[in-house]
Design brief:
6-stranded mixed β-sheet; 6 helices; 2 domains
Length: 154
């Protein structure tokens, strides 16, 4: 009796673990809620992480790191084929595909700018022009308040 109770308990625990794994696999979305009211997200969805345009974008992002930080931006260059990073968070290709689907990105490439309030501020099929992105952000009411308190970039 004690043995069968122990076996049933272990079997139940195994089923719960399997259900949790299946649930995690069925819903691989990247959780964006920790960024809400903290950061603006620039999500760049790509299929090929090694093309020349993308290399230029990465270089431009690196050169403008201070301006990105001043605007509280977190950038994710998200590949549908390889693991990627959103800020410091590692994300799988499966998570990227699920997020792209959730955001309605059906083309090979897509760009989404998410404001601090969690709403989509910009949607594009081409790689971002950082000057245009910065102008858009700088025109937002929340950013106007931030700019009055900001030291800016040297």
């Amino acid at each position: 009796m004690i043995l069968s109770s122990l076996v049933l308990r272990n079997a139940a625990a195994a089923l719960v673990a399997i259900a949790m794994l299946a649930s995690a696999h069925a819903n691989p979305l990247i959780d964006l809620t920790p960024y809400r009211w903290q950061s603006r997200l620039l999500l760049v969805f790509v299929d090929d992480s090694a093309n020349e345009e993308l290399i230029d974008l990465r270089n431009s992002l690196a050169e403008r790191a201070c301006e990105l930080a001043d605007r509280d931006m977190v950038v994710g260059i998200l590949s549908r084929r390889y693991s990627s990073k959103l800020g410091s968070q590692h994300v799988t290709a499966e998570q990227v595909r699920a997020l792209a689907e959730e955001l309605g990105i059906s083309t090979e490439r897509g760009v989404i700018l998410v404001g601090k309030d969690g709403t989509v501020k910009l949607r594009s099929d081409s790689l971002p022009d950082l000057h245009a992105i910065f102008r858009l952000i700088d025109g937002m009411p929340m950013r106007q308040v931030e700019m009055s308190d900001s030291k800016g970039c040297p």
